[in-house]
Amino acid sequence: MDTFLYYALTLVESVLGVFGIRALYEQPRYAVVERLDRGVEVRAYDARLAVETNAQGQGDGEAFGRLFRYIAGANRDGSRIAMTAPVEVGRRRIAMTVPVERGAVDTMRFYLPRTVAAEGAPEPTEAGVRLVHIPAERMAALRFSGGATPEARTEQGRILGEVLATSCKATGPVVFLGYDPPFAIPILRRNEVAVRLPPD
């Protein structure tokens, strides 16, 4: 895809995103396996591939820029890769090697299109950007619209935790899944908070 067409398509996707139209964005495949109270869904996701970088939370424009540059050609092949939804922002546990201890880091992820994953995604060329293979997994998710402020995410995460306290055990921290650009009309936005669950 040539540069002009790539950026024109990206612009069209962004404009449509203002109105909550995300039909052009590929999304990870999942099946809803259980519906819990207050709109919480337990989902079984297929394995997928993401590109990831460290972030300073949801509104980290530098992290978003690094990931966008990767899909716009800052990769070993110079390939332009279609944007997908959602963008995942959350905390990931890491193992430190010296000394041996566990820590956590905030990350931002773009999921890559299935065709790109199947063909072999090109390696990033920018420091701090990495490919991450995510195995098939179960997640519990709660969808909400409106602004995705830190307060809104915290409140929705609290609701998700209350629902899961009686039925499931989460295996990690709450992550935010954003399906729309930040300038989308709030009532039309699709936001989610989610937690990973242990395998069946």
Give the helices and strands, then pairings.
Layout: H1 3-18, E1 30-35, E2 41-45, E3 48-54, H2 61-71, E4 87-96, E5 101-111, H3 114-119, E6 129-134, E7 137-144, H4 150-165, E8 175-178, E9 191-197
Antiparallel strand pairs: 1-2, 2-7, 3-5, 3-6, 4-5, 4-8, 7-9, 8-9
Describe this structure as you would to a colleague.
This protein has helices at 3-18, 61-71, 114-119, 150-165; strands at residues 30-35, 41-45, 48-54, 87-96, 101-111, 129-134, 137-144, 175-178, 191-197. The protein has 200 residues and is α+β, with helices and mostly antiparallel strands. It has one domain (3-197): Regulatory factor, effector binding domain (Multidrug-efflux Transporter 1 Regulator Bmrr, Chain A), CATH 3.20.80.10. It has a nine-stranded antiparallel β-sheet with strand order 1-2-7-9-8-4-5-3-6, with helices on one face. The protein is globular and about 50 Å long. The relative contact order is 0.21. The model has no long low-confidence stretch (mean pLDDT 89).
